[in-house]
Amino acid sequence: MNTNNMKALPLVASMLGDKLGVEVVIGDMKTASTDGKIIMLPALPLCAEEELAVLVNGYIDHEAAHIRHTDFEAIKNSRLNPLEKHIENTIEDWRVEHEIVKRYPGCRDHFRWLIRHFFLNDMKAEEIDSPAFSLLDYILLTLRSWDEPELQPQVRANARIIDAHWPNLREKLDQILSKIPTACASTRDSIKFSRKIVRLIKQEAADEILQPQEQAGEEQNQDSSPSDSPVPLSSDTSGDDSIDAQSSADTGVQDKNPSAPKTLSDLIMVPASELPQSFDDQLAQSIHAAPFSIPLSTSSTNSLP
To answer: Bias category Polar residues: which stretches (predicted)?
Structure first.
């Protein structure tokens, strides 16, 4: 990043918005945001750390891609449920970035930096917290790995978790994801793909519920069959507590987040507030948290190095 650019970040942000054909407003707001027409940024320092400069450039590029290429009315009219909306946003993020790069190739470097910054170092497969969330991570990382192959180890880590819990799911999911690069040309397509994925999840969730019932039926049949050897009965009635303790021990390490969804049925019912943070929100939050060298409100020409 050019040092002179870092020393005039508010000007660079406005100029970048002009170049991309979107309005950028810098002012008295707590965090970065967009209303689908205007990109709004908090007061920016004249002299910024390099990371903040790249974050701001990447944020403007990303939100400009949404403003130019996302059909917000289609999303509103689609009435997606929280899980569908989350997956649609993941797909749409990837799609609009590719669209804007066709006209502004320079955005590609910003996007690759953002992918590496947010996904290469920070994301880990957390099976203990939520194997169901590993499915969402897998979708996100698969799409992003198409542009950043270094994400492949994380894709494989989440794939192993999915395969361990739902052996029949990933092959079907991959069949859907593989069609996105050639068949996802609009926001409506992103919506269609998200619905296909959620339908698949619901189908697997139904199987997930049936499997324990079928297994219980098989065990009941086995228990009702005659046995050649008598089963000793314990006269110790205190065994109930030990059984409960053993059941708890069988689950292994205690979950760090007990409320996180464990099953696909849980995932389908998760409210929007408990789903993983969107890429747009991660970007906005990072800009808010980034270190400011010299706040705009107190800086002056004489104070610049």
So the answer is: 244-262
- Buried/exposed 208-223: b ≥16 CB within 10 Å, e otherwise: beeeeeeeeeeeeeee
- State the pLDDT at residue 86: 98
Cβ contact 75:187 at 8 Å = yes
Q: What distance in Å separates the CA atoms of residue 36 and residue 242, rounded to the nearest whole number?
A: 58
| Nearest residue to 284 (alpha-carbon basis) of 56, 126, 54 | 56
More confident position, 72 or 253: 72
**Burial grade of 73 (CB within 10 A; 0-12, 13-18, 19 or more):** exposed
Mean pLDDT (the chain) is 79
Half-sphere exposure of residue 258: CA atoms within 13 angstroms, side-chain side: 3
Residues 134, 167: Cα–Cα separation, whole Å: 14
Question: If you search the block for the tokens 């797909």, which residue do you land on?
Answer: 91
Angle at 244 between CA 240 and CA 245, to 5 degrees: 115
Q: Which tokens go with 220? A: 């009941």
What span, in angstroms and rounded, lies between the C-alpha atoms of 165 and 286? 33
Q: For residue 39, is it left (φ>0), alpha (ψ between -120 and 50) or beta?
A: beta
CA distances from 288 to 15, 28, 63, 66, 261 (A): 21, 12, 16, 20, 29
Whole-structure pTM value: 0.77
Residue of 96, 77, 159, 94 whose CA lies nearest to 125: 159
Question: What are the distances in angstroms from CA 244 to CA 60, 223, 240, 250, 282?
Answer: 54, 21, 6, 10, 41
- For 20, which DSSP code? H
* pLDDT over 60 (residue 253): no
* CA proximity to 55, closest of 248, 216, 282: 282
